[in-house]
Design brief:
Two copies of one chain form a homodimer. Chain A contains four helices and seven strands, in the order ααβααββββββ. With 145 residues, chain A is α+β, with helices and mostly antiparallel strands. The first copy, chain A, folds into two domains: 10-88, Arc Repressor Mutant, subunit A, CATH 1.10.10; 94-144, no CATH class. In chain A, the strands form two sheets. In chain A, strands 1-3-2 form a three-stranded antiparallel sheet. In chain A, a hairpin with a 5-residue loop joins β4 and β5. The A-B interface holds A 78, 80-83, 85-86, 98, 100-101, 107, 109, 113-120, 122-123, 125-140, 144 and B 78, 80-83, 85-86, 98, 100-101, 107, 109, 113-120, 122-123, 125-140, 144. Chain A binds a DNA duplex (25 and 25 nucleotides) through α4.
Chain lengths: 145, 145
Amino acid sequence: MNRTATAAGPPECARRLIQLGIRPTPQRVQIAALLLSAPQHLSAEQILAALRSSGTRVSKATVYNTLNLFAARGLIRQLSVDGSRAWFDSNTAVHYHFHDTDSGMLIDVPVPEVEFSRLPSPPPGMEVAGIDLVIRLRRKSDTDR
Amino acid sequence: MNRTATAAGPPECARRLIQLGIRPTPQRVQIAALLLSAPQHLSAEQILAALRSSGTRVSKATVYNTLNLFAARGLIRQLSVDGSRAWFDSNTAVHYHFHDTDSGMLIDVPVPEVEFSRLPSPPPGMEVAGIDLVIRLRRKSDTDR
DNA sequence: TTCCTTGCAAAACTTTTGCATTAAA
DNA sequence: TTTAATGCAAAAGTTTTGCAAGGAA
């Protein structure tokens, strides 16, 4: 089973939604097609703007409802890298992120590029549900080069 | 120089604010004293409530202004572990976190408990400003034990 | 018919801002 | 006297909710 985002047209998206038990309404299929067209990070507002400018009729509430639904079913992943807004990541494979502090841009870091030689054991009765790693970047200052 | 939060009364807090070039007004000293009384994670609203219930007269705007100021000067650290609100961490030493997905609670993970044997190099012209690691926890389900 | 989905507006929540007032250097 | 900090309320930004209307099963 392919868990990473791959280019997918609306028909393929509709199929994937059905697999997840999600009724493939036009709005949902459009949102899925946009997100899954490539591995990327989009905000709710960006998705709303993109859909509307491409002629899709959709409301803000539906965008949020749909994104939350997709995230709950594991089709996408919600990220909290800065406090200002949520980012929705179409790459659901386990991976990490670079975060450019200046521009706010996110860049995927594939799993093989990070290796933990030591991790703490979770408290009793708890288990690890996932690991979020954000490597914060800043522009090199001229004096440092 | 001690960079970790340590129990500190108002006089010691005032001294520390002055060191950082921050004028030690009563509100600022109270907020610092609350946060630095122990390593902990507090939200702006929690801080406002705690100060008011202890008799300190302070406004919401001042709490936010002060927390942002403290974070900018490195006295505390702002965390984005869930999208809903900012958490302010009085432990400014480099460290990581456990995050209990159910309760929302945060637990510090000291640096020695995590070891990276491999990390990606930053893109050209960029340097690493910091690493945020959040280990998300969930209650072990009964069937798993 | 029955259930689910959508859209719209309003509400809720967190955080920031404008501005008059107050306090400190 | 001059600058900086505070408080209040309003504004701004993001996300959620209530509810009527529409559409699919």
